[in-house]
Design a protein that fits this description.
It is built from 9 helices and 6 strands; from the N terminus they run ααβααββααβααββα. It is of the alpha+beta class. A 3-stranded antiparallel sheet has the order 1-3-2. It has a 3-stranded antiparallel sheet with strand order 4-6-5. Helix 3 crosses helix 4 and helix 6 crosses helix 8. The chain starts with a helix and ends in a 31-residue tail after the last helix.
Length: 196
Amino acid sequence: MAEVQDVVSGLPEGKQEQALEAVLFAAGEPVELEVLARAFGMPSKQMQELLDNMRFSYNQQNRGIQMLRLGNAYQLCTRQEYAACVHAVFDKKREVSLSAAALEVLAIAAYNQPVTRAFLEQVRGVDSSGVVASLLDKGLLEERGRLDVPGRPMQFGTTARFLRCFGLSSLEDLPPVDENGALIAQLQLEEQPEQP
């Protein structure tokens, strides 16, 4: 890490942002804030301010790429509205949409994580092993260790890829639910003038 800090500290004044952009571009996946802060030899708060300023700049300039904040990590990626162009150039097949069962498992996991397969099956009322395996393969769920009970069942949670795919910065961005698990509609009522 000292070698990296030596390289970064040797950058001309004002080139940290460009170096950070190059690092995130080359990574191709989310990079943790703490990793970037250590590599650049700066406090996490200062690194976060630099990254947030860059995110704002990308949004203001309405560029073809954007910087995403995924929990405590950052990533450069193309904007959704240009996905068809990217797919056409790279001749990639359109990603298969998720089944209703997969979306259901993801929702249960996102709001209750970490969860066991038994918990998912209890909530859904059906076997979920195939759906969980598929979501693990797609990188939308990940293993989160074992529960400390007899049988030591595996626990699962959502990933940074889940956040990216659903356009969330963190799990706090999920819509709120009531005590019955139903989504609460977020309506803003306009003030109506009083009637005479």
